[in-house]
Amino acid sequence: MRAVEIRPGVRIRWVEVPGASPARVYLHGLGASSAPYYAEAVAHPLLAGRRSLMMDLLGFGISDRPTGFAYSLEGHADALAVALAKIGLRRSEIIGHSMGGAVAIVLAARHPEMVRSLVLVDPHVDPATPALGAPGSRGIAAYGEADFLSHGFERVLRDVGPHWAATMRMAGREALYRSAVDLVRGTSPTMRKLLMELEVPRVFLHPEEAPPSGARELTAAGVQIVSVPNAGHNIMIDNVEGFARAVAQQRLSV
Q1: Computed from CA positions of residues 48, 51, 56, 61, in that sequence, does the dihedral angle turn out positive or negative?
Q2: What is the pLDDT confidence band of residue 249, given thresholds at 50, 70 and 90?
C-alpha cells in the first residue's frame, strides 16, 4: 500500500505492483475498491510485468474520506490528477470500471497530459434517472442526503449482496451518496460526448450480452468496442482471461 497527500491531511492510497513503463492505473466503480476487483487480472500473464497502480478514489477503499469534498466526477478527476502528478506519472494507461470509467473520461478531458490511453470497462457514459429501489447509483441518488446517511446506506448495503457490500461498507457515506448523485446527473457536455471527442486511443469493453447504446457513433468517433463473453458488469472478475486478453490485444500505443 502506498499513499500521497493531495491536500493537507487528505491522502489517496493505492496498491502497486512494480514493473515496466508506461504505467497502468486502475480505477474502481461506485462503492468498490481497486485491488479486490483488479488484483487477479493485474497478475495475469498477459498483463503482468507492467507497473500497475490499483488506485482507490477519494472516499473509497483505503483512501481518505473527507466529508467536505464534493465527490463530483470533476472533483474525483482533479484529485486523481494531483495524485498522479505527485507520484510523477504522466501519460499512463488508465483502466476504469463503471463509475471509474466516467472518472477516467473526465480525467482525459481535463488533464490530457496524464493519459496515454483509456480502457473503459462497461462504463457510465450517459445521465440516468434516480429511482428508489433501482440498483447502483440510480437507487442511491433517489434518496435525499440526510435520509441516505441516516438509514438509506444500511438499506442499500443490505440489498447489494455480499460481494459488493464487502467494499461498499468501506466507503464514506457522503462519498458514496454524492458520487452516485453526480454520476447519474452526468457532466456537461455528457461523458459520452467527451469520450467521442478525445484524441487518445480508447477501448470500450462490454459484456457480450449487453452491447452499449450508440455503438455505431462511438465506433465512428474512433472508440474500439470490444465484446467480452461470459461476463456481467464486473468483467475483470467474471472473466479474468477474457478481460486480460481484451486489454492486452488492443492498439493502445500512440
Answers
A1: positive
A2: confident
Distance CA 229, CA 243 (A): 9
C-alpha cell at 113: 497530459
Across the chain, which distance is largest between two alpha carbons, in Å? 49
Is there a cis peptide before residue 22, judged by omega within 30 degrees of 0?
Answer: yes
Nearest CA-CA partner of 53 in 74, 75, 78, 24? 24
Which grid cell is 162? 455480499
CB atoms within 10 A of CB 137: 26
Question: Residue 39 — φ and ψ, nearest 5°?
Answer: -55, -45
**Domains with residue ranges and CATH for the chain:** 2-130+190-249 (3.40.50.1820)
Count of alpha carbons within 13 angstroms of residue 20, beta-carbon side: 3
Query: Per residue in 104-122, is it b (16+ CB within 10 Å) or e — as a string?
Result: bbbbbbbbeebbbbbbbbb
- Give the global pTM: 0.96
* 141: enclosing H helix or E strand: helix 136-141
Nearest residue to 153 via CA among 167, 169, 166, 137: 169
Per-residue pLDDT tens digits for 86-137: 999 999 999 999 999 999 999 999 999 999 999 999 999 999 999 999 989 9
Residue 170 exposure: Cα atoms within 13 Å on the Cβ side: 19
Distance, CA of 157 to CA of 164 (rounded, Å) = 8
